[in-house]
């Protein structure tokens, strides 16, 4: 998936390059009123509504700044405005977390890898994505979106490993030959964002957004060792609490005025990441043999998000949605990366170079009122 990350980095750079134009576009909109028929602040009259028999009602271009991107018939009781007051999107998201990078976890006596974190594979898992948008005058929208998946799990069992092995920590901890290893890796991701949106005054097919985003990424890695009737447990836990600012765009990729349209999405965000790491070796499980490490600090982290969504209008107020989205996170603490940075004897060490990648589809409904 390296090419996908390169695409996302390229799109992020392109978004930064057009940032000056976006700021000019945005603040010019803040400083001026919408003008309809050369009269500032006048709502579009009823005869400006164009009835499209092939799909929902549309307004002409002069009225789109007032009504926002969703201009259907569902507006009758909304403060005498044209266009909907609310848009609610409810999706089922099925995403995959790509497997970890190739980080050696167990080494043999020659320091050659016996077991890598990349040997663990995650499947597609499902979660909810809900978005609520309030539409205001002059094209401004306030949007809140939540997304979360709790159930990424990967496991592996390696029996009767030959020779003496040791954990890939700074302080070497040896493990007897003939050991059986059961590994479990759990990961979960939650995101909450609040964005202010405004249609572009320069590009009629584009909507700018700026806002605040909170992302929590939590992971747990456990390795259970069984040898000579004894057992030991290595466990690493990471927590990332990311708070930051986000900018992005929604764009109309294909819209011929009928019931079907295709939209694209680009978002980038920079965060202060409160990253935490705890790990230890218990022998037997429940009694600490080495460690614990319990450390954390603030670091910079980033996310980039791409999406494409097709929307088919079932009625004037209800549309079916389906699409695909990609999410790249950079600069976070991952459980699979902590072992090489860990000194269990000193109780120190944290790695924040993680860059997990997520992708998957969505299907849901959009309701406008």
Explain this structure to me?
The protein has 369 residues and is mostly beta strands. It has one domain. 10% of the residues lie in helices and 57% in strands. The protein contains three helices and 18 strands. The N terminus is likely disordered.
Low-confidence stretches: 1-5, 33-81
Using the CA coordinates, give the radius of gyration. 26 Å
Number of helices: 3
SS content category: mainly beta
Integer tally of domains = 1
Main sheet makeup? 10 strands, antiparallel, barrel
What's the end-to-end separation, in Å? 40 Å
Percentage of helical residues?
under 10%
- What is the total tally of β strands? 18
Describe the global form: elongated
Mean pLDDT: 83
Going across the biggest sheet, name each strand in turn. Answer: 5-8-9-12-13-14-15-16-17-18
Helix-strand topology string: HHEEEEHEEEEEEEEEEEEEE
Q: In what range is the share of β-strand residues?
A: over 45%
Topology of this protein?
Layout: H1 2-17, H2 19-31, E1 35-36, E2 39-40, E3 49-50, E4 58-59, H3 61-67, E5 86-97, E6 104-108, E7 113-116, E8 124-135, E9 141-161, E10 165-167, E11 174-175, E12 179-199, E13 206-227, E14 230-255, E15 260-282, E16 288-313, E17 318-330, E18 357-368
Antiparallel strand pairs: 1-2, 3-4, 5-8, 5-18, 6-7, 6-10, 8-9, 9-12, 10-11, 12-13, 13-14, 14-15, 15-16, 16-17, 17-18
